[in-house]
Amino acid sequence: MRVGMTLPVMEPGLDADILESWSRAIDDGPFSSLCFGERMAFDNPDALTLLGAVAAWTSRVEVITTVVVPQLHDPVMLAKALATADVLTKGRLTVGLGIGGRREDYLAVGADSSTQTMAELASRALTMKRVWAGDKVTEAVRPVGPPPVQPGGPALLVGTLGPKTMRSAVTWADGLAGVSMDLDPAGIGSLFDVARSAWAEAGRGAPRLCTSTWFALDAGDGSAREQVHRHLLHYMNWLPVSLVDPLARVSGFAGTASELRDLLKRLEDLGTDELHLIPTGADVRQVERVAALLA
What we know:
alpha/beta, TIM Barrel
């Protein structure tokens, strides 16, 4: 099982130095990928702009945008931006797509909330694939470029928690970019089984199976759980605190390096292709500690 590391893009107080130090540490470490997602009504950096910087700061790791919401963008412009990122990363880009779970993100950019459907996501994903294939999808004289480095464009993963969404993505996705709140092996394994069955029925071979979770490593003072709790209260600010607080107290991973090693083994036994760890703080020493564990 491969292990990727997510940039701390949802942490407050970020600057270019923090993002660069994390990117270089991930690229220098034993990680398979550098990941980050998209959000609009929040203080995180713009995902498409960040792709250019990450391309310059790294040279080895796969770059994964774990969740981009096509309905928040013009699909042709999004296809052009992602093709550019594929060029800048020299073919290291993989794109996770989802419908997004926050209506406020649609409101923030004036997007039509009625498009927050899997059917619309599929339509836009297929439009992007046509752009990457060089098809003429507009009335312009020439097709929209640049052509991506990867033939047919970057691999696409569906960002989802649910079986229904998973089945509907089989026509355009190459696999799953899931997330686990409670790290329940039965729940993760069940979603993986749905993906395997859907891909097999469609004659598409084996899907790529990725999942992610928030984490903090215990420094011996019991602060790891407090760190995850604080992060999730900040990140889930669109929900009532009364709902988030009990969830944030038990979600994600908070424990020792030995306990994290045990978690990795359990996920590997489920057939997980890749785990994406989501940091709950901006201290780059977290990257170094996980890198030492993996090494």
